[in-house]
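Lecture notes, unit on protein representations.

Consider one protein chain, 258 amino acids long.
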Amino acid sequence: MLKVSLLVLSTSYVAWYLQQFETRAVYPFDATYSTPADAGVPGLMEEKLATRDGETLVIWRADAALGMPTVLYFPGNAGGLKERANRFQSLIKAGFGVVAPAYRGSSGSTGMPSEAALLDDARAIASRENSVELVLYGESLGTAIAIRLAAEGNGKRLVLEAPFTSIPDLVLAQHPSEKLDHLITQRWESDQHIAAVTQPLLVIHGDRDHLVPFAMGEMIFDTAGSPDKRLLRIEDAGHSGLWAEPMLADLFAFLTAE
């Protein structure tokens, strides 16, 4: 239906329509604002960060226990921070610090999301946290951000949950009969940056993930430049539901390894 409707539209309108469609498809964020207390995680504090271009980001954070690292957590594109409340609670209970930014247009943060803007925001946040032992954690869409930061030398460790190689690859995997690569602007080409990652790496992926194929996680793992890396294959698991025992035991052991 999309291809038919485009035939009768002007070139400028087609470009606008595709831009709007792509933004909503890649960044279907929940803009609803809620506090950590609303989400049932009183151990978290809320901060506001002013961006260089005048937007305001919501950040949830908790200090680490003595000698424990801080997890800089980049969520997936579904929902917002409150949907990760149980994850943050688990990390805090285990003594880890948490820094969880809400993307532009998500969970009360202002602005419109884009690859360039989200990367610029992530770099600013990582730069603020350079006084602590930082672990980068990326979930789905967040893996692309975490990989870019790690490739640029940020973070002591890197955790990737359901990583993908690129948005064009995802579109091709989900719509193999369509030729859409030339229309995609939000590319998130992690396959072009993962070789520069040398930090200890943990990749977590369900082997029945129908949104991000397990083979993409394997490719990211194989291409990573990290001498110390592990692929944690969660059997019979899909794209969600990975945050559970025994995965948590493996994750926490990786986060605290010497």
